[in-house]
């Protein structure tokens, strides 16, 4: 099981990040305390904000531990069961798996420090080497291939792992490794093409109305930190930026049109950042998705700029030759539109995600002339109406991940030969959001990005795959994702 970070407030991690292992003077009060997603976090935020911030941010230049500070992902089932006491995450799934015979010798959670850029997960923690060993051992001992279950950011990480594990000079597993070791890949609320909420989080430190799981962490950040602090913290966690949207304008649209615009919509979501005048006489030009990412990098310090450029890539590979060339380029591995699935004809991929919950899709921003602020932009919360609620325009999704990001690869992208040369079978099961009014977690039929982990249907589907009966699952598509995907401007080469 590969947990995710909730991309909404971005901060709250399913992995309860971060026990402090530093023994220096500053770290002593926090030794083995959870500095992310716990009461210790809130306590530290209240009593010693600067120290807390210094602990959770990575070194800006190296993207690794700052001198004298050491935070690590908490490990084991306990780390992923509950976020705070009583707020279940994976506990229901683990309990259900136990009921069909899984136990700690046959099930494993692979927690990771989601703040790190993916390459640094290997460099610092040998994360991918360990995952590879674990899977090989499990497969050998049971004489059965392994089922991987990933949630949210975990699904991007799994895709990256597939690339890494086969590549020469990295995992060195060779082109048959996935075929030989992985039975199925279950991908819950995956955000392979990113989450648009990531953009305002790093651009302007704004994470409003993103209280999903993160209610807790976002609460602390909003309450005790300035917008500038929040943007700085988000940027100094390069793992978070792995969730910036991928596929550029081909997926997210141009200034007047987007594949997922609805016919009744007057203002296209393709204009991802729509500028209003603010205090200026003229508004900045509107920005499409590709332009927005360029704008973000132009308006941020070089350490952030460099880290993003060194770690990730957000485009589309137009030909099979380009995809093959990218097999050797780690920056491309996180993007399924620039790298391909493993050549594993018997691998099965299951995409399970929620729909029917308004999800941030585009924004109204204005430029600021506040001399105290180093961030020159913020969401223009005065714009409401015409689809916008206080500067935020929503569209179809699971509350965190847009339908476009959740569904495109599953129903269309992986039907293109260059991204899936072995014809790996993909099944897509959508679950509409039908929350129960009096249950804060939405009850048995929620489609929410996080709460879906407790949904009855999702648990049943996971059990079917884990019990070797995944073939009995058929597609369930209730949204417009097929028509939307046809409009995405990516074609066979
Ligand atoms: C945006 O894309 C649509 C659909 O392809 C096209 O009709 C329109 O001219 C494009 N607009 C701009 C500003 O490029
Ligand atoms: C930006 O988009 C908004 C909303 O569609 C529009 O009213 C405005 O004119 C656009 N700005 C520019 C400079 O085109
Ligand atoms: C913000 O705007 C000011 C004035 O236009 C400019 O000098 C400064 O470089 C901008 N800051 C960033 C981070 O882009
Ligand atoms: C516009 O100016 C007012 C008064 O100086 C200030 O309070 C406000 O924050 C400014 N708005 C923006 C978007 O910069
Ligand atoms: C689009 O504009 C028309 C005419 O101004 C208006 O009646 C309609 O409500 C608008 N649609 C949306 C989704 O705002
Ligand atoms: C996981 O599923 C999501 C849909 O929920 C999809 O967008 C993504 O591409 C899938 N990723 C992988 C690696 O299967």
UniProtKB/TrEMBL annotation:
<dbReference type="GO" id="GO:0005811">
    <property type="term" value="C:lipid droplet"/>
</dbReference>
<dbReference type="GO" id="GO:0005637">
    <property type="term" value="C:nuclear inner membrane"/>
</dbReference>
<dbReference type="GO" id="GO:0046027">
    <property type="term" value="F:phospholipid:diacylglycerol acyltransferase activity"/>
</dbReference>
<dbReference type="InterPro" id="IPR003386">
    <property type="entry name" value="LACT/PDAT_acylTrfase"/>
</dbReference>
<dbReference type="GO" id="GO:0019432">
    <property type="term" value="P:triglyceride biosynthetic process"/>
</dbReference>
<dbReference type="InterPro" id="IPR029058">
    <property type="entry name" value="AB_hydrolase_fold"/>
</dbReference>
<dbReference type="Pfam" id="PF02450">
    <property type="entry name" value="LCAT"/>
</dbReference>
<dbReference type="GO" id="GO:0055091">
    <property type="term" value="P:phospholipid homeostasis"/>
</dbReference>
<dbReference type="GO" id="GO:0032541">
    <property type="term" value="C:cortical endoplasmic reticulum"/>
</dbReference>
<keyword id="KW-0732">Signal</keyword>
<dbReference type="GO" id="GO:0097038">
    <property type="term" value="C:perinuclear endoplasmic reticulum"/>
</dbReference>
<dbReference type="GO" id="GO:0008374">
    <property type="term" value="F:O-acyltransferase activity"/>
</dbReference>
<dbReference type="GO" id="GO:0140042">
    <property type="term" value="P:lipid droplet formation"/>
</dbReference>
<feature type="signal peptide">
    <location>
        <begin position="1"/>
        <end position="20"/>
    </location>
</feature>
<dbReference type="GO" id="GO:0006672">
    <property type="term" value="P:ceramide metabolic process"/>
</dbReference>
<protein>
    <submittedName>
        <fullName>(Perigord truffle) hypothetical protein</fullName>
    </submittedName>
</protein>
């Amino acid at each position: 099981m590969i947990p995710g970070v909730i991309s909404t407030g971005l901060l709250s991690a399913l992995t309860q990040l971060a026990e402090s292992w530093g023994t220096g003077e500053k770290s002593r009060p926090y030794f083995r305390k959870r500095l992310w997603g716990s009461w210790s976090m809130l306590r530290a935020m209240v009593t010693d904000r600067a120290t807390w911030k210094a602990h959770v941010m990575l070194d800006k230049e190296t993207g690794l531990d700052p001198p004298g500070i050491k935070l690590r992902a908490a490990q084991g089932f306990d780390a992923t069961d509950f976020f705070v006491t009583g707020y279940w995450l994976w506990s229901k799934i683990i309990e259900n798996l136990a009921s069909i015979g899984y136990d700690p010798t046959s099930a494993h959670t692979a927690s990771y420090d989601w703040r790190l850029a993916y390459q640094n997960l290997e460099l610092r923690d040998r994360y991918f080497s360990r995952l590879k060993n674990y899977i090989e051992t499990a497969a050998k001992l049971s004489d059965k291939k392994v089922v991987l279950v990933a949630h949210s950011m975990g699904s991007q990480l799994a895709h990256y792992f597939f690339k890494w594990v086969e590549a020469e000079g990295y995992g060195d597993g060779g082109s048959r490794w996935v075929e030989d070791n992985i039975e199925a890949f279950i991908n819950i609320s995956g955000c392979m093409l990113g989450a648009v909420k990531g953009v305002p989080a790093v651009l302007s430190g704004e994470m409003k109305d993103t209280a999903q799981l993160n209610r807790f962490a976002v609460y602390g950040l909003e309450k005790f930190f300035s917008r500038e602090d929040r943007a700085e913290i988000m940027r100094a966690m390069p793992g978070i930026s792995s969730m910036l949207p991928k596929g550029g304008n081909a997926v997210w649209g141009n200034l007047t049109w987007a594949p997922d615009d609805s016919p009744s919509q007057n203002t296209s979501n393709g204009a991802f950042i729509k500028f209003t005048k603010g205090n200026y006489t003229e508004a900045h030009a509107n920005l499409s998705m590709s332009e927005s990412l360029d704008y973000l990098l132009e308006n941020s310090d070089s350490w952030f700029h460099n880290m993003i450029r060194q770690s990730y890539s957000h485009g589309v590979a137009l030909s099979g030759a380009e995809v093959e060339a990218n097999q050797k380029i780690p920056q491309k591995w996180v993007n399924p539109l620039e790298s391909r699935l493993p050549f594993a004809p018997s691998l099965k991929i299951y995409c399970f995600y929620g729909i029917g919950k308004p999800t941030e899709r585009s924004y109204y921003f204005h430029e600021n002339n506040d001399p105290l602020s180093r961030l020159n932009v913020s969401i223009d919360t005065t714009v409401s109406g015409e689809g916008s609620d206080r500067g935020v325009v929503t569209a179809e999704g699971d509350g965190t991940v847009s339908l476009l990001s959740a569904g495109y690869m599953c129903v269309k992208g992986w039907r293109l030969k260059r991204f899936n040369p072995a014809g790996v079978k993909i099944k897509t099961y959508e679950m509409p959001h039908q929350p129960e009014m009096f249950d804060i977690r939405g009850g048995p039929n929620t489609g929410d990005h996080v709460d879906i982990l407790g949904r009855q249907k999702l648990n049943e589907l996971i059990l079917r795959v884990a019990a070797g009966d995944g073939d009995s699952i058929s597609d369930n598509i209730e949204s417009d994702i097929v028509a939307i995907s046809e409009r995405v401007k990516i074609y066979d080469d």
